[in-house]
Amino acid sequence: MAAGLIIMKDLNSLSKEELIKLVALQQEQLRVAEERAEKERIIAEKAQRTAEIKEQSHLKFAHGVIFMAQNLKEVNGNYLAQVEDFLSYADDDESRKAIRVLYDMIAHSLNTIAAASGQIAGFFAHGNEAMKSGETSEQAYENATRSLEELKKVRSFSNNIKGVARFSAAISKAAEALSSTTNLTVESQQKISSIVRASAPSTDQIKQTHRGRVNNISKLPEAAPVVASETSAVCDKCGEPLSGWEVLIADLKTGVTQLEAGFRQQNTYKLGFCQKCGRVEVFMDPDQDHPLFPDRLISTKTILSFNQAMCIGIPLERALRQFEKDAELGSNTGSYSLYDYQRFYLKPLFKAIEKTVQNRAVLVCDETPFDCLQDQGRGKIPAAGVEPKAKTNYVVAVTTADGAPQPATLYYYSPTRSAENIGKILSDYSFKTLVTDGYSGYKTIIKNRNLGKAETEQVRHQSCLVHLRRELLKVVLPSDLYKQLLDKSEEYVTQELQKQLLANTDGMKLHTALKAINAVFRIEAEKNAGLLNPEQARKAQAELIKYLDQMMLEASKGLVTQKGTTWVKTRNVPAAKPCVYYLNAREDFTTFLGSSEIPPCTNKVERAIRGVTILRKNSLHKHSANYMEAMCMALSIDATLRENGIDPFKWLQKYSQALFKHMTAKGLSQVWKETGQRKNKFSIRLPEKLEETDKKINKYLPEKLAEDFDMQPWLDSIFRA
């Protein structure tokens, strides 16, 4: 009653105009409410009619999937069976819409399932009838197979690789139980298994690769103590007795002395002068340290230690700065000395090794990015200026094939990755076969080299099978879904895989192709280990490549098309990408079958560039092209020595001492000849400090002093000719 009185009191207090507005508002609200009720009634009747004409199974499926996509926070339960059931009868608009919702949720909520979404469609679709999805599902497919790096983000990449092997073995077992006439996929599975069994070595042929911990120190040869050699009193050139003995005393600033705590070490060398031929001889103990040049202070052992550290990927900036501070050297003296060592000591050796590799019949080549600031228009630019060449620069690696005699690895700096620049690097090589990855620039290089040549004289190209295998792994690499399948009973797994084999799905075709490639590498390993005759190995591999080709052609049907000379995708599904990759290099995958010396992959050169990638990560960049080239020469010599089982530091120490003695003796001989005086020092002339005319006539340039150094004994010691 009180509330009514208040309302009445409030209404009585309103003016006539306010009462009219209030009544109009209430009428409008009633009208809107009636319209809303009518619309809801119409919607309800329409929904009822729709429900009456739809089958209950489709409604249950669609509503269930939408509910699961909206409410599921984590993936639990047997998803495999659910997805298989869902895909079996999705033939109306609402069901297909539900599938798109499901895949959108999978792609954006869990990386593991997103990486496998394309695989689900490939394995559980019949033939080439892949799952019909909307635009968002296609995006999920694209994201699922973007790169192998994304797949490595899955919780356990190594377990997935093991899962591929388990899954492949399960497919092989399922195929063995079917008739070989079922389809081409089943026949290929059985034939590949047969080839592998026939090529497998017997148990008594298998070499033991690891014996565990062995105590054999008493059997190792004992090294004799180092004793200073006596000084020869005879000229090496003419045999005359030496006279006028002098000493050369060098005070070295060193970071590797064992004499005392400090950075100074005094070294004394003996000089002998031949009166007959005017030659000076320099005598040193075998392990004695020395400066880079007679008028320098930094010891060669110290610079050599910095050079070796760089070659194994250790950043030198802080170490060099600390050494310069402790040894009271000028700014950048350490880095300049390292550069001088690489260009004057290592360059002649690099050129000599390069000549031995240039005539090799088979070479393997690859490249990796490495920034050079000046060629990118960054860093300290010289007064003359430098024209920027590219945003990304590269180190190109060229190696001999696996198992080749006298192995070698050489690195080169390339401002860009263009076929023109890499072609210039390879122009001095007369190889017959080049093994590379799928980069199109190498095809251009080979095409240009073969212009105007007879077919028998043309250079051949082997495209890397490992890179093809990577493309296949991006599609068939199993996720947690397939781990769940493998956790089922053996009978259940065999039955399910037999269904897929009978349906001849794209997934089974690609798994069969992967199996063929794996078998090729298994036989290659047995050949390299001496367990299989090379001719027998190539014969078996030729059969495997035939089945690989059949499977890739089968998987390509309906997925790719040819435009001009290039194959492209016609459908945006995971299986299409490896098919395009294969067809665009189809003929180049079989070149290795023509010779046991040609490897089927680029594993050798990829191992070689691994060290460069570590150095790139730690050092980030080089300042100029000159420093890039010096770095490449150092890396080349280090890699080649290691390939031939040689300790780089000890070998380079002996080599550097021999070259130092040669340059010092030659320089002092020239001073004696020009002045008539017996000197014990002379000044090296650096080329950048001389005019162009002086460079041609100056006898004291390091390259002039080193040009007649006999490199052959040192090459023989590397390659043990």
Quick structural gist:
This protein is of the alpha/beta class. It has helices at 2-12, 16-53, 56-71, 79-88, 93-109, 111-124, 135-144, 148-151, 157-176, 184-199, 300-311, 317-326, 333-357, 419-426, 440-449, 465-476, 480-486, 490-503, 506-528, 534-556, 576-583, 603-619, 625-643, 648-675, 692-697, 702-706, 712-719, and strands at residues 243-252, 265-273, 280-283, 362-369, 371-372, 394-400, 409-414, 433-436, 460-463, 560-563, 566-569, 621-622.
How would you characterize this protein structure?
This protein is α/β, with parallel strands linked by helices and 721 residues long. Helix content is 54%, strand content 9%. The chain contains 27 helices and twelve strands. The chain has helices at 2-12, 16-53, 56-71, 79-88, 93-109, 111-124, 135-144, 148-151, 157-176, 184-199, 300-311, 317-326, 333-357, 419-426, 440-449, 465-476, 480-486, 490-503, 506-528, 534-556, 576-583, 603-619, 625-643, 648-675, 692-697, 702-706, 712-719, and strands at 243-252, 265-273, 280-283, 362-369, 371-372, 394-400, 409-414, 433-436, 460-463, 560-563, 566-569, 621-622. The strands form four sheets. It has a five-stranded mixed β-sheet, sandwiched between helices. It has a three-stranded antiparallel β-sheet with strand order 1-2-3, covered by helices on one side. A hairpin with a 6-residue loop joins strand 2 and strand 3 (280-283).
